[in-house]
Amino acid sequence: MFTVTPQAEAKILEFMQAQSGKSFLKIQVRGQSASEYLVHFLLEDQKKETESQFDHQTFSILYDTIDGNKIQNSTVQWIESVSGSGFRLDNPNKPENNLDSPLAVRVQEILIRKSILHCSPWWQHRAT
């Protein structure tokens, strides 16, 4: 279900050790943008009935059962850059109402074509 990079695994275990009693990494889908699911990472101490569990080698990952298909086959990464550091989910799954879908692209083409045809040059809008 999930792959965890060695750097992410080390950080997760470090945070779990610092917050004794927290034995699960929870990946929560909090919404979506046009091209990806927005996720949040947190540590939990117990599993809820509405959650599924994936057992990694050294810890377990929880996620809401209803969101499983949105984040399956993802990779948990730890990223460090000049902008900051944190966990990232490299997720191959994209929202179905993606703006890159064939239907959305076609609608965008039509809207652009109609807006170009119905727009007059700026100089024709000057007050007289």
Textual characterization of the structure:
The protein is of the alpha/beta class and 128 residues long. The protein contains 3 helices and 7 strands. The chain has helices spanning 6-18, 68-71, 102-117; strands at 2-4, 24-32, 37-44, 51-55, 60-64, 74-81, 84-90. The chain has a 4-stranded mixed β-sheet with strand order 3-2-5-4. It is elongated. 12% of the residues are buried. The mean pLDDT is 86.
The total of beta strands comes to 7
What's the order of the H and E elements? Answer: EHEEEEHEEH
Give the termini distance in whole angstroms. 67 Å
User: Which sheet architecture does the biggest sheet show?
Assistant: 4 strands, mixed
The coarse silhouette is: elongated
Give the spatial strand order of the biggest sheet: 3-2-5-4
- Mean pLDDT score, rounded? 86
- Give the number of helices: 3
Summing up helix and strand content along with how strands pair, one would put the structural category as alpha/beta
Approximate helicity band: 25-40%
Task: Kindly estimate the percentage of residues that lie in beta strands according to DSSP.
Answer: 35-45%
List low-confidence stretches: none
What integer value in Å does the Rg equal?
Answer: 22 Å
